[in-house]
User: Which sequence fits this backbone?
């Protein structure tokens, strides 16, 4: 039924394409803006490109009248990889990817030690093993630190259950301050790159140059510069339809040019709050679309494992409050399907949603003639 609806409405789907300028609740609009754009709008548009206008309505949740529309210099995503067919391989950062210049020099100066092979003497008398004593269970078990952290985060989320939008706004500000994380400023985000991306994708759709049933997977590595923009983006690996991959590359470029990734900056490093600036860091984006799910992951880096844990906790609590504020709306599903975790110094923003669920969300946005 979903495919039939899309086919019937294809001729009129883009007839009245426009950016939704209706004012939204400003607090929620700023909530983890860049990550949701990357994980919802991009993947939804890849899911069914004829519904790209409706997918862009998801992006427009972050593009209210307070956002700017101005000229920009388009970032091009380079190609450093060949097409792959490794459906189940998981990409990892190369060893030393996050190493500083000093660390790399130290590794280079460290003399290498030749590895020696060792052949065990099987004729040697092996010692008789000593039986392991039975464990005596404690009557006062202690919860593991990880479980305690999760429990505390859940308790904090329940305690921070706001009743009104005003209370939610105050709670969001409190959470951001307590965890030292950034709520993106709408005045720092330029919507024109996203509008241009929409126009280019629409043109491809009109020419019939997109295979709507394709599956893709792409990994892009880049750097976030001091202006909060992407620099030197390169495709590390990719598979699937080449035109849809180009659409994905173009969308990542538009997100970088829009300034939405400014939420990744660490407030502890902001010296002038009146000026938009970020601390330079490596960044990696992985996007995957198959017949069952849509998924994406954004990987960035904090200064320490402790800071990564704190920022991940802050973002998750913000998502929980945002989910409450949009209860009963599609945005609630987007927030619920976004999770932030940490691995060492890495911060991982993960989005995953069943493809049928995403299809139903897009079906609601179809014009009456397409139903």
Assistant:
């Amino acid at each position: 039924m979903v495919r039939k609806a899309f086919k019937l409405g294809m001729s009129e789907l883009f007839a009245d394409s426009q950016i939704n300028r209706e004012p939204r609740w400003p607090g929620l609009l700023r909530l983890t803006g860049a990550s949701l754009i990357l994980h919802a709008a991009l993947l939804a548009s890849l899911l069914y490109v004829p519904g790209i206008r409706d997918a862009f309505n998801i992006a427009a949740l972050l593009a209210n009248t307070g956002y700017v529309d101005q000229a920009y210099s388009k970032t091009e995503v380079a190609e450093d990889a060949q097409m792959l067919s490794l459906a189940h391989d998981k990409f990892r950062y190369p060893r030393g990817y996050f190493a500083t210049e000093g660390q790399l020099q130290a590794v280079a100066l460290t003399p290498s030690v030749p590895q020696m092979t060792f052949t065990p003497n099987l004729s040697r008398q092996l010692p008789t093993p000593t039986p392991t004593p039975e464990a005596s269970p404690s009557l006062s078990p202690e919860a593991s630190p990880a479980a305690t952290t999760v429990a505390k985060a859940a308790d904090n989320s329940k305690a921070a259950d706001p009743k009104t939008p005003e209370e939610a706004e105050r709670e969001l500000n409190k959470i951001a301050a307590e965890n030292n994380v950034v709520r993106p400023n709408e005045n720092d985000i330029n919507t024109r790159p996203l509008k241009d991306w929409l126009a280019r994708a629409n043109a491809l759709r009109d020419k019939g140059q997109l295979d709507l049933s394709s599956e893709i997977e792409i990994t892009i590595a880049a750097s976030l510069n001091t202006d909060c923009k992407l620099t030197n983006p390169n495709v590390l690996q990719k598979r699937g339809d080449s035109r849809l991959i180009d659409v994905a590359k173009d969308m990542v470029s538009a997100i970088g040019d829009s300034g939405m990734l400014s939420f990744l900056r660490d407030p502890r490093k902001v010296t002038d709050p009146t000026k938009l600036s970020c601390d330079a860091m490596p960044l990696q984006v992985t996007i995957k679309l198959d017949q069952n799910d849509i998924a994406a992951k954004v990987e960035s880096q904090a200064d320490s494992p402790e800071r990564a844990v704190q920022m991940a906790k802050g973002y998750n609590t913000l998502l929980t409050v945002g989910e409450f504020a949009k209860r009963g709306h599609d945005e609630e599903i987007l927030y619920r399907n976004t999770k932030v975790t940490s691995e060492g110094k890495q911060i991982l923003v993960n989005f995953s949603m069943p493809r049928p669920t995403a299809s139903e969300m897009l079906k609601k946005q179809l014009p009456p003639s397409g139903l």
About this structure: The chain has a mean pLDDT of 66.
